[in-house]
Amino acid sequence: MESQPSQFFLHPAVVGRRTLALIGEFGAFACFLGFGIRSIFTLPFQFSKIIQQMYFIGVKSIFVIALIGLFTGMVLGLQGYYTLVKFGSEGLLGAAVALSIIRELGPVLTAIMVTGRAGSAMAAEIGIMRISEQIDALDTMDIDPIRFLIGPRIVAALICFPLLTAIFDVIGILGGYVSGVALLGINKGIYFYRINSSVELTDIMGGFTKAIVFGLLVVTICCFEGYFTHTRAGGFGAKGVSLATTSAVVLSCIFILVSDYVLTSFLL
């Protein structure tokens, strides 16, 4: 009996086609990002649309960011206390909580939460505009769709992500205070003294740098997935929008974590 080729090995032609498709996808994304950034500097500025997007991305995300920040800080305070007390170093709890949140957890968790709340909505909204031919109508009226739809969202994300990260950082540190000082009895003077003596300006600037990069990635990926919904092979119409929204959230989270590792390598 003739043996069949293993399903785990693909034909070289298939590998080549998939590799070319992947390179083409990255090229299209890079061009989309370049056109989006260029549209930011094209006159006249769209102040009213930027403010609308800032309200949608920033203001409407404050509650969930504050809630996640509070409980993240409380968990860090609780876990950090029972770890540090084994070494007789529970006085370092404030520094441990603050540095963990400012350097890593603040920017990353803020970006992931905004992706789930606002990024998915962006991908769905632009995807529906694509399949209902509203984007084609903009082209017909000689209106640049990228400048009209994408530019204000990029500006709003670049402003809102660092501000939301700052809110997360402050409330997260207060959450650590609730666990460490109010519940477990650490001296509040030592808690804040350790934060003051350990956190440096470079830590804060590093966190804001990550927030800006994450904001640019999230808004570009989500808008890109929605903008090219009609080219998706998995489906068209409502199914295509659904797949584009799912893909936007998954890819954004992956790129957030990958870029976080790269940025941390450079910032340390």
Molecular structure report:
The mean pLDDT is 87. Helix 8 packs antiparallel against helix 9. Helices cover 81% and strands 0% of the residues. It contains nine helices and no strands. It has helices at 12-40, 47-57, 62-84, 93-131, 134-140, 145-183, 188-198, 201-227, 238-267. The protein is mostly helical and 268 residues long.
What form results from the Cα inertia axes?
Answer: elongated
**Count of individual helical segments:** 9
**Integer-rounded radius of gyration:** 22 Å
Low-confidence stretches: none
Instruction: Characterize the main sheet.
Output: none
Strand content: under 5%
Structural class: mainly alpha
What's the order of the H and E elements?
HHHHHHHHH
Instruction: Work out the number of β strands.
Output: 0
Distance between the termini: 60 Å
The residue-averaged pLDDT reads: 87
How much helicity do the residues have?
A: over 70%
